[in-house]
Amino acid sequence: MTITLKTDEKSLGEVVVTALGIRKEKKALGYSVSEVKGEELTQARSTNIANTLSGKVAGLNVTSTATGPAGSSRIILRGNTSIDKNRNNQPLIVVDGIPINNDNLGSAGEYGGTDAGDGISSINPDDIATISVLKGGTAAALYGSRASNGVILITTKGGASRKGVGVEFSSNIVIDRPVVENLDWQYDYGMGLNGLKPQTAAEARAAGLFSWGAPLDGSSVIQYDGISRPYNAVKNNFKKFYRSGYTFTNSIAASGGNEKVTWRFGATDMKNEATLPNSGIRRDNLSLNVSAWLGKKLHLNVYAKYIRERTTNRPRVSDSPGNANFALYLLPTSLAVQTLKDSKLNADGNEFRWNANEYITNPWFSVYDFEQADKKDRFINSAELRYDILDWLYVKGRIGADMFFRDNKAVTPNGTAYIPGGQINDQTRQNFYELNADVMVGVEKGFSETWRISGFVGANVMRNKNDKLYLTGNTFNIPYFYDQSNLQTKTVTNDIFEKRINSLYASAELSFKSYLYLTLTGRNDWFSTLPVNSNSIFYPSAGLSFVLSDAVTMPKWINYAKLRTSWAQVGGDTDPYRLRLAYQVQNPLVLGTTSLPVADVKKAQDGSYAVPNANLKPYVNTSYEAGFEARFFDNRLSVDFSWYTRKTKDDIVQTTISNASGYNTAFINVGKVSNKGIELMITGTPVRSKNFTWDITPNFAYNKSEVIQLDGKLNALKVSDVRTFNVTIQQVPHQPFGVIQGYSFQRDDQGNILFNAAGKPLQGPLTIFGTGVAPYTLGVTNTFTYKAFSLGVLIDSRWGNKLYSGTNDYGYYFGLQKATLDGRSGGVTIKAQDPNDPTKYTDKVVDAQDYYQNIAFNIAEPFIYSGAFVKLRQVILTYSLPSATLNKTPFTGASLSFVARNLWIIYKDVPNVDPESTYSNGAGQGAELLGYPQSRSFGLNLNVKF
Fold it and tell me: Any idea what DSSP says for residue 193?
């Protein structure tokens, strides 16, 4: 008998993972879901897998911070839903059905700090099978309040039935070089002030940060350590300080099974030596997935993961104390970083003061004398048991936990210029755990060839606890013995936060003739963080999918066409202990005294009181979505388009109130914010021949955000400051989310900048320069395949946003910016205000140093740039052994790849820094300040299977 199978070109039956781990046919979904395969994350690797998603999913905006390889990333789906500065607006991360913590464990602000990483960075890309991005409210509604910003679903690899044991091994090495190797500063004038060279060591220290000296002429000039050196341009400080970093990753996995049990065990070791000397991270991942039939109707899935992280000397960023990058960017044009290394310590063994500002630390002292180390052990475990009562009726239970145990010790050593006695900041304990338990009853039944229904009802309980113990202390009794017991003064603080959510949920999907699908969901959450009388909220959603190509006869050139639309409400609560005053024991505890309320403790720490609010209620986010999917010309061209709108009301915002109340701020339900946008993904194959194929996948997204409402008494809500204090990031009604606000120049009718009689620029109006969040994103992936070779090229771009560059602002002040060359020899002519008649202005020549320094830190306008960029994000060249060759070897697969990331900034506007060089992943986007330089990476990746 000859049997011929006919191809069904109408529907490909693609299955994707959706909320709660439910697998559904993609054609049944009334919302957009994007999926990224695991192999896309393991070739051109990043130490944080979130960064490898950049440019690959429409509507997904991933921003890497300028905080080093162990830093965090900011992930935003379809805009920011909350204007409160305390919310990160990031999606819920779910691993094998279990939500995990993705908090930033430490961050930098205007006064400096350290980025201690986030949760998603712990996940091993070698274990990932797929990542599903649930962008819309309907897609995420079943997760309730925690999914108000969308969901990233990570499904890890499992075993398969096979003969024997399968083994997969991969080895990857990546070499990193800092992108900013030579700054585009001026190299005509050297160290000094007022056009003069230093004449003594004391004068050299006073001018240690300034390039306002004489023209560089090669003469012998004394420096801060009393040694005379040539007065020449030094252009290689970055190369002399930063090193070639590397990341070495080895991964091995074994898998197997039969018709009853399948399993997979994986182990991965990653070692990173950062480009910043004496800094790096070591991460080890172990994973075990087991799937077993315990009889004909009972099925068990077990997922177990252990992550061990050890990090040394995370870089300090933003403000100067201990920030090696700060000093390196601002070294005078005639001072070599090698000199700072040779004269790091003075005769007493303390930090040699090389400039007048004791808080700007010698970079070699920062990286080799400061000490920082943190350890984190994390467990993500879950078990799922399903019993098929009937062919169409099942019951399922799942329990899972995300736990980590972390400690961090940071030592400012003896002899540090700004704190000679030394200091310890020791987080001696952070124990976090979150437990999620679900029970679910579901049906999957067809009533005829026309109608089919599937659905479930379920319940979830979530318990969350975060226990932190901090110790801070100053002045070591015995120098260089860095232990808690050796401190003269110390303070101990214990913070414990607990939170609970109880939930009921349900979903029903009704299909008609496999081309019309209606999906309804509902979830109700009860929060421990809100008042009893208003701690409950119900989240409904509805989605409709119509597969047009299955319903009617289409032209042959249309292979598939689908229309979809959906509506949903999601929302959320707030952090614990905002309803009433909570008390905290202070150190030292004096018996017979009353402990201070947490609000008073906050006052002692940062000078502000936050009044609790017993009448808070959940905020609500309502979203609509419509779109279509189509495939044409024998599936050589496909289009996926979405339009959406999202609006948040009753946002819980920390707002300023009258000091007469005894407090400075309060938490109230006042905020409203809107996001509207479109997403478009196109996949095409312009060339397809026997030996050569070209695939191209552009994805485009536009998000228009608007702050609709604040407290009626506020004109703006400050999100964050920058250390120069000439700009702030604000939420302003009727403006986009997170605008950059600062003073512009005051100008006359001809556009000339106006100055007062002393030569200081006159401030113009307080100006909104634009949003710090890019509304436009575009990623284009090209894949060229020729026989056994393939070449993948990803171009990533963003535009429409602004960036305030603190680095270039400091460059003005210290005489490093090329713009400061104008007027050095004869002064700068300005329009000065007549002190006797403020309406009159006359020409006046002022000293160039005074002119530029009066602009720096006072006027924001010169340092606001377009944040747009176009980057060659990654290139992957792979050779895979052909099948004919593999048949002669013990391997079932083998490939070798050359990989590269961040190869080339094709376009940018801001000089001297990368447009992605923000130092915070919080709400205050759009500001950079002397951050960790981005790296250009090259590497090799070997993968074999047998």
Answer: B
